[in-house]
């Protein structure tokens, strides 16, 4: 069913996010009949565009960023006629006056019932200002619901995250704030919950008695791609691990929720993140490895410059472009099961995977001089680019003697479902329109994740990384990341 009637107001509508993701997602939703008939979009940004110019710009950009094979002109015309634009500076009260006039007019024309969805496609430092000005201009007087979508980063450490949360909560109720973590929009990430809780097969084994350890890898082949200015202040721990990877970890390890409602799921995620062991900075140092890439050759043969020579990056930068962590979840289910996380830029291959390594079955029956050491079961969630789930088991090799070999069972999204390619934002925009906050983060979740990351950030920021750069672009990261597992008698699994 289509989402609730509403007007979507995009702050920062002339920016990258709008053309790359928001408009293509709205278009995909329109193609699938998931936008309400009573709907309009109002873009606002500094650029002095007219509505006409905004429409033709979005139409042109859609040709580049469209995710579907076939173009549906009816869906696009439908959406295009609902796109509007008003120029304005986010600090200027008059701009909000004009915005309100336009929104009121469209609300009456389109019959959207005063439901307003504000999308903050801007820097987080503007969220407070915009909220305050919206208030001042009397937007609260509209009769319907009001919600706001915010994009990361949600702070750059625990303290700034708390400050940002306070700022948001000064103007909005928690249930009005939708914090986007685009990993939660990925089908394969959402499927982790379906896999765990809609099947009887694995969940009884999902604990310290049967699982040896878990590995999460988000490997990127690209470097910082012109985002050096932002990235040099962030680093991979803030950019990928504190948010996307800890959210995935929560899905893999949380307890079954009381129901599938947004808050029941988020309660369990928060509980899980609160149980992740908080290291002292000293202990953090022996459980975390950081890396930065030097020049190298990528898998496709292209030369990749060293991180420190990227645009807008400090030539003596201490920022980590790779990190590997060894975490523990101090709860009943996961006591002493190591959770290894790694992520980095300019690596050999792009691939996001979660590998759940089971303990070895008793070997009593299958040993002897002719037997190879028996491997143990592993379950792998392929998140991207390959999408699916795979597990191995031991089978008898044909022949007169008992020999074992590991074989695979594999589910592939592409083979089982015929779904159109999407941006991943569709499901989130739709969720927001219907008031379903399942795929969004929450104040306590954001802060719990920062509490995991903070001691590591503190340990690193106090100590310059003298060995940077310590891995070549196009490699698998620093050698020390391997040592982190080898000293536990384990190794990283290659991503497919
Ligand atoms: C973003 C990070 O949040 O996620 C980027 O800021 C990163 O640095 C991106 O490249 C990865 O997203 P995806 O969907 O390509 O895995």
UniProtKB/TrEMBL annotation:
<protein>
    <recommendedName>
        <fullName>Glucose-6-phosphate 1-dehydrogenase</fullName>
        <ecNumber>1.1.1.49</ecNumber>
    </recommendedName>
</protein>
<comment type="pathway">
    <text>Carbohydrate degradation; pentose phosphate pathway; D-ribulose 5-phosphate from D-glucose 6-phosphate (oxidative stage): step 1/3.</text>
</comment>
<feature type="binding site">
    <location>
        <position position="182"/>
    </location>
    <ligand>
        <name>substrate</name>
    </ligand>
</feature>
<dbReference type="GO" id="GO:0005829">
    <property type="term" value="C:cytosol"/>
</dbReference>
<feature type="binding site">
    <location>
        <position position="239"/>
    </location>
    <ligand>
        <name>substrate</name>
    </ligand>
</feature>
<dbReference type="GO" id="GO:0009051">
    <property type="term" value="P:pentose-phosphate shunt, oxidative branch"/>
</dbReference>
<feature type="binding site">
    <location>
        <position position="186"/>
    </location>
    <ligand>
        <name>substrate</name>
    </ligand>
</feature>
<keyword id="KW-0521">NADP</keyword>
<dbReference type="GO" id="GO:0004345">
    <property type="term" value="F:glucose-6-phosphate dehydrogenase activity"/>
</dbReference>
<feature type="binding site">
    <location>
        <position position="220"/>
    </location>
    <ligand>
        <name>substrate</name>
    </ligand>
</feature>
<feature type="binding site">
    <location>
        <position position="152"/>
    </location>
    <ligand>
        <name>NADP(+)</name>
    </ligand>
</feature>
<comment type="function">
    <text>Catalyzes the oxidation of glucose 6-phosphate to 6-phosphogluconolactone.</text>
</comment>
<keyword id="KW-0560">Oxidoreductase</keyword>
<comment type="similarity">
    <text>Belongs to the glucose-6-phosphate dehydrogenase family.</text>
</comment>
<feature type="binding site">
    <location>
        <begin position="89"/>
        <end position="90"/>
    </location>
    <ligand>
        <name>NADP(+)</name>
    </ligand>
</feature>
<keyword id="KW-0313">Glucose metabolism</keyword>
<keyword id="KW-0119">Carbohydrate metabolism</keyword>
<feature type="binding site">
    <location>
        <begin position="12"/>
        <end position="19"/>
    </location>
    <ligand>
        <name>NADP(+)</name>
    </ligand>
</feature>
<feature type="active site" description="Proton acceptor">
    <location>
        <position position="244"/>
    </location>
</feature>
<dbReference type="GO" id="GO:0006006">
    <property type="term" value="P:glucose metabolic process"/>
</dbReference>
<feature type="binding site">
    <location>
        <position position="345"/>
    </location>
    <ligand>
        <name>substrate</name>
    </ligand>
</feature>
<dbReference type="GO" id="GO:0050661">
    <property type="term" value="F:NADP binding"/>
</dbReference>
